Amino acid sequence: MCFAVCCLVAAASTTEAADLTARQVTELLYKAPFGSKPELSGQDLNGLDLAGLDFKGARLSGSNLYGTDLSGANLAGADLKGARLDRATLIKAELSSANLEGATLLRPNTNTSFTSDPREVPRFAGARMAGAKIVARLDGADFRWADLTGAVFGTADERLEVLLTSQVLLNGCDFSEATLRGAILLGASLRFARFIDADLTGADLRGTDLTRADFTGADLTGADITGANLDEADLSGARGFAKVKGLAQALNADRAVLARAP
């Protein structure tokens, strides 16, 4: 633990200065013609205070936003493919319909206190997040219609070569009609999460806490629920349930809702 913390501190202290100042970014966004997409691809914007800015669907692919303050920022429709959002402040950030394919969101700041508040977490409705790596507390976040194909919730930081083992908290998240094909949610807390009509084909749900999760209409074909806590989870309306893996090794399977009473 000490090694991991020391590495993180060292990485933060050696981060180079950003390519642009917060004022320059603000001016660029302000002067962008209506309907255009401001160009910030590949820019190093680490540590800048960009809170509250309207990015107007900016191109930020491959950008470095490590530790950047994006509180209340409007990043809806922005291109953040492969962007680094580790340790960024995302309180009340709007990321709906943004392209976050292959982006990293490792331990971003998503709440103003230790108590999780769904009103403060960023919004990802309709976002493209295929292959994204996420280690975060996002209780109550909106992931409806998002594409999370192959997304990894919980990962090793390749830059620091240390394992980030803090639990991924997704309690009460709404994944309705989201695509989670092959997504890895190993050990995540998904209490009261909604997966209504979601595609969870081949998803890795081993060791997850699915207490009272709602899978109405969800496709669970090939999903692995080995060691998952199914206490009062509603699986009665799930599709492909006959092809779920690990049901015999799931916890509290006898308390799950597997069929509706006539």
Question: What would your notes on this structure say?
Answer:
The structure is a single chain. The protein is largely without helices or strands and 262 residues long. It is built from two helices and five strands. The protein has helices at residues 2-13, 22-31, and strands at residues 104-106, 133-135, 152-153, 156-157, 162-163. The strands form two sheets. It has a three-stranded parallel β-sheet with strand order 1-2-3, with no helix packed on it. The protein has a two-stranded antiparallel sheet with strand order 4-5. The longest helix has 12 residues, at 2-13. The protein is elongated. Residues 1-14 have low confidence and may be disordered.
User: Order of strands across the biggest sheet?
Assistant: 1-2-3
Helix content: under 10%
How many DSSP helices? 2
What percentage of amino acids are in beta strands?
under 5%
Low-confidence stretches: 1-14
Oligomer: single chain
Topology as H/E string?
Answer: HHEEEEE
Structural shape: elongated
Give a quick account of the main beta sheet: strands, pairing sense, barrel closure: 3 strands, parallel
Number of strands: 5
- Structural class of the helix and strand makeup? little secondary structure
How far apart are the termini?
52 Å
